Amino acid sequence: MGAPWEDGPVFTFAPRDGWVFWTAGLDGPGWADVAAQIAGGDDDERVLGAVRDHDQRATADGQAWGAGLWFPPHHDRSPVAMLLVRSFAERGDVDKAYRTFVKQARKMPRIKDVTVSSYDVGEGTSNVGRLVEQVIDTVDARSEALVSTWRYTIFPPDHDEVVSVEVDTLHAHMVDAVEDELVELLAYASYTAPEAAHAAAEEGGSSPLHPVVRG
To answer: Which CATH number fits domain 10-204: 3.20.20.240, 3.40.1000.10, 3.40.190.10, 2.10.77.10?
Structure first.
Protein backbone atom coordinates (compact mmCIF):
# COMPACT_ATOMS: atom_id res chain seq x y z
CA MET A 1 0.00 0.00 0.00
CA GLY A 2 2.98 2.32 0.29
CA ALA A 3 4.78 4.38 2.92
CA PRO A 4 3.12 6.35 5.74
CA TRP A 5 2.14 9.92 4.97
CA GLU A 6 4.07 11.82 7.58
CA ASP A 7 5.58 14.61 5.49
CA GLY A 8 2.70 16.96 4.73
CA PRO A 9 -1.02 17.72 4.57
CA VAL A 10 -3.40 14.92 3.61
CA PHE A 11 -6.83 14.80 1.98
CA THR A 12 -9.62 14.78 4.53
CA PHE A 13 -13.30 15.54 5.09
CA ALA A 14 -14.68 17.84 7.75
CA PRO A 15 -16.74 16.14 10.47
CA ARG A 16 -20.41 15.82 9.49
CA ASP A 17 -23.40 14.54 11.42
CA GLY A 18 -24.21 10.92 10.67
CA TRP A 19 -20.89 10.18 8.97
CA VAL A 20 -17.97 8.22 10.31
CA PHE A 21 -14.60 8.20 8.52
CA TRP A 22 -11.51 6.19 9.28
CA THR A 23 -8.27 4.88 7.83
CA ALA A 24 -8.86 1.37 6.51
CA GLY A 25 -7.16 -1.65 8.04
CA LEU A 26 -8.48 -1.70 11.61
CA ASP A 27 -8.94 -4.58 14.02
CA GLY A 28 -11.65 -5.41 16.56
CA PRO A 29 -10.96 -2.55 19.00
CA GLY A 30 -10.65 -0.14 16.08
CA TRP A 31 -14.01 -1.19 14.64
CA ALA A 32 -15.56 -0.72 18.08
CA ASP A 33 -14.08 2.79 18.37
CA VAL A 34 -15.57 3.79 15.01
CA ALA A 35 -18.96 2.23 15.82
CA ALA A 36 -19.05 4.13 19.11
CA GLN A 37 -19.11 7.42 17.17
CA ILE A 38 -22.70 6.59 16.16
CA ALA A 39 -25.21 7.22 18.96
CA GLY A 40 -25.87 3.83 20.53
CA GLY A 41 -23.48 2.14 18.12
CA ASP A 42 -21.09 0.94 20.80
CA ASP A 43 -23.51 -1.81 21.82
CA ASP A 44 -25.31 -2.37 18.51
CA GLU A 45 -24.09 -5.33 16.49
CA ARG A 46 -25.61 -3.87 13.30
CA VAL A 47 -23.40 -0.81 13.50
CA LEU A 48 -20.30 -2.75 14.51
CA GLY A 49 -20.92 -5.30 11.76
CA ALA A 50 -21.37 -2.59 9.14
CA VAL A 51 -18.09 -0.94 10.15
CA ARG A 52 -16.25 -4.26 10.19
CA ASP A 53 -17.60 -5.38 6.81
CA HIS A 54 -16.84 -2.07 5.11
CA ASP A 55 -13.36 -1.88 6.61
CA GLN A 56 -12.64 -5.37 5.30
CA ARG A 57 -14.00 -4.37 1.90
CA ALA A 58 -11.71 -1.34 1.83
CA THR A 59 -8.70 -3.41 2.85
CA ALA A 60 -9.46 -6.08 0.23
CA ASP A 61 -9.72 -3.39 -2.45
CA GLY A 62 -5.94 -3.10 -2.44
CA GLN A 63 -5.94 0.63 -3.30
CA ALA A 64 -8.44 2.22 -0.93
CA TRP A 65 -6.96 3.76 2.22
CA GLY A 66 -9.98 5.69 3.45
CA ALA A 67 -13.41 4.40 4.42
CA GLY A 68 -16.64 6.01 5.51
CA LEU A 69 -20.28 5.21 6.25
CA TRP A 70 -23.37 7.39 6.45
CA PHE A 71 -25.91 6.56 9.16
CA PRO A 72 -28.77 9.05 8.64
CA PRO A 73 -31.12 9.76 11.53
CA HIS A 74 -34.24 7.59 11.80
CA HIS A 75 -32.76 4.83 9.63
CA ASP A 76 -32.53 2.14 12.28
CA ARG A 77 -28.75 2.47 12.68
CA SER A 78 -28.18 0.98 9.23
CA PRO A 79 -25.73 2.66 6.84
CA VAL A 80 -27.25 4.12 3.70
CA ALA A 81 -24.05 5.10 1.88
CA MET A 82 -20.58 3.56 1.81
CA LEU A 83 -17.48 5.57 0.90
CA LEU A 84 -13.97 4.65 -0.25
CA VAL A 85 -11.03 6.97 -0.89
CA ARG A 86 -8.06 6.16 -3.09
CA SER A 87 -5.08 8.34 -3.98
CA PHE A 88 -2.70 8.02 -6.91
CA ALA A 89 0.64 9.80 -6.67
CA GLU A 90 2.94 11.33 -9.28
CA ARG A 91 0.12 12.70 -11.42
CA GLY A 92 2.31 15.11 -13.36
CA ASP A 93 0.89 18.17 -15.13
CA VAL A 94 -2.56 18.76 -13.63
CA ASP A 95 -4.17 20.18 -16.78
CA LYS A 96 -2.91 17.39 -19.01
CA ALA A 97 -3.94 14.71 -16.51
CA TYR A 98 -7.39 16.25 -16.16
CA ARG A 99 -7.99 16.45 -19.91
CA THR A 100 -6.83 12.87 -20.40
CA PHE A 101 -9.13 11.59 -17.68
CA VAL A 102 -12.15 13.52 -18.98
CA LYS A 103 -11.66 11.92 -22.38
CA GLN A 104 -11.44 8.44 -20.87
CA ALA A 105 -14.44 9.02 -18.60
CA ARG A 106 -16.72 9.77 -21.55
CA LYS A 107 -16.66 6.09 -22.48
CA MET A 108 -19.31 3.77 -21.04
CA PRO A 109 -17.60 1.59 -18.41
CA ARG A 110 -17.59 -2.18 -18.56
CA ILE A 111 -17.72 -3.85 -15.17
CA LYS A 112 -17.38 -7.60 -14.64
CA ASP A 113 -20.51 -9.45 -13.48
CA VAL A 114 -22.75 -6.39 -13.56
CA THR A 115 -24.98 -4.69 -16.10
CA VAL A 116 -24.56 -0.92 -16.42
CA SER A 117 -28.12 0.43 -16.64
CA SER A 118 -27.22 4.14 -16.77
CA TYR A 119 -24.11 6.26 -16.88
CA ASP A 120 -23.59 10.03 -16.69
CA VAL A 121 -20.45 12.15 -16.61
CA GLY A 122 -20.03 15.73 -15.49
CA GLU A 123 -17.30 18.20 -14.62
CA GLY A 124 -17.19 20.45 -11.60
CA THR A 125 -15.09 21.88 -8.81
CA SER A 126 -14.51 21.02 -5.18
CA ASN A 127 -12.83 22.80 -2.33
CA VAL A 128 -9.52 21.18 -3.28
CA GLY A 129 -9.59 21.22 -7.08
CA ARG A 130 -11.39 20.38 -10.30
CA LEU A 131 -13.22 17.10 -10.46
CA VAL A 132 -14.92 14.67 -12.80
CA GLU A 133 -18.18 13.14 -11.57
CA GLN A 134 -19.27 9.72 -12.83
CA VAL A 135 -22.71 8.45 -11.81
CA ILE A 136 -23.26 4.77 -12.50
CA ASP A 137 -26.32 2.61 -11.92
CA THR A 138 -25.59 -1.10 -12.10
CA VAL A 139 -27.47 -4.36 -11.63
CA ASP A 140 -25.60 -7.31 -10.17
CA ALA A 141 -25.86 -10.34 -12.46
CA ARG A 142 -26.31 -12.77 -9.57
CA SER A 143 -28.24 -10.93 -6.87
CA GLU A 144 -30.06 -8.54 -9.25
CA ALA A 145 -29.40 -5.79 -6.71
CA LEU A 146 -29.48 -2.23 -8.05
CA VAL A 147 -26.48 -0.19 -6.94
CA SER A 148 -26.08 3.55 -7.46
CA THR A 149 -22.45 4.68 -7.47
CA TRP A 150 -20.85 8.13 -7.55
CA ARG A 151 -17.17 8.45 -8.45
CA TYR A 152 -15.49 11.80 -7.94
CA THR A 153 -11.98 12.05 -9.36
CA ILE A 154 -10.29 15.16 -8.02
CA PHE A 155 -7.21 16.92 -9.40
CA PRO A 156 -5.69 19.13 -6.65
CA PRO A 157 -3.51 21.79 -8.29
CA ASP A 158 -1.14 22.05 -5.30
CA HIS A 159 -0.61 18.33 -4.69
CA ASP A 160 0.96 15.91 -7.16
CA GLU A 161 -1.75 13.27 -6.96
CA VAL A 162 -5.27 12.34 -8.01
CA VAL A 163 -7.87 11.62 -5.33
CA SER A 164 -10.75 9.25 -6.05
CA VAL A 165 -13.84 9.35 -3.83
CA GLU A 166 -16.32 6.54 -4.51
CA VAL A 167 -19.70 6.28 -2.81
CA ASP A 168 -22.43 3.73 -3.37
CA THR A 169 -25.87 2.94 -2.03
CA LEU A 170 -28.38 0.12 -2.35
CA HIS A 171 -31.24 2.40 -1.26
CA ALA A 172 -32.84 3.74 -4.43
CA HIS A 173 -35.27 5.93 -2.48
CA MET A 174 -32.32 7.69 -0.80
CA VAL A 175 -30.38 8.64 -3.94
CA ASP A 176 -31.26 12.33 -3.76
CA ALA A 177 -30.35 12.47 -0.08
CA VAL A 178 -27.00 10.79 -0.73
CA GLU A 179 -26.24 13.27 -3.51
CA ASP A 180 -27.00 16.17 -1.16
CA GLU A 181 -24.59 14.71 1.39
CA LEU A 182 -21.84 14.36 -1.20
CA VAL A 183 -22.20 17.98 -2.23
CA GLU A 184 -21.60 19.00 1.38
CA LEU A 185 -18.69 16.60 1.91
CA LEU A 186 -16.84 17.85 -1.17
CA ALA A 187 -17.60 21.49 -0.37
CA TYR A 188 -15.63 21.19 2.87
CA ALA A 189 -12.95 18.70 1.88
CA SER A 190 -9.43 19.94 2.45
CA TYR A 191 -5.80 19.05 2.85
CA THR A 192 -5.05 18.96 6.56
CA ALA A 193 -1.89 18.40 8.57
CA PRO A 194 -2.02 15.06 10.44
CA GLU A 195 -2.03 16.70 13.87
CA ALA A 196 -4.90 19.00 12.84
CA ALA A 197 -6.94 16.03 11.65
CA HIS A 198 -6.60 14.39 15.06
CA ALA A 199 -7.63 17.61 16.81
CA ALA A 200 -10.69 17.97 14.57
CA ALA A 201 -11.70 14.41 15.36
CA GLU A 202 -11.59 15.13 19.08
CA GLU A 203 -13.60 18.34 18.77
CA GLY A 204 -16.09 17.30 16.13
CA GLY A 205 -17.16 13.91 17.43
CA SER A 206 -16.62 12.25 14.04
CA SER A 207 -13.17 11.38 12.78
CA PRO A 208 -12.08 13.09 9.57
CA LEU A 209 -10.19 10.90 7.17
CA HIS A 210 -6.56 10.75 8.17
CA PRO A 211 -4.58 8.47 5.85
CA VAL A 212 -1.71 6.48 7.25
CA VAL A 213 -0.74 4.84 3.97
CA ARG A 214 -0.80 5.89 0.36
CA GLY A 215 -3.30 4.11 -1.85
So the answer is: 3.40.1000.10
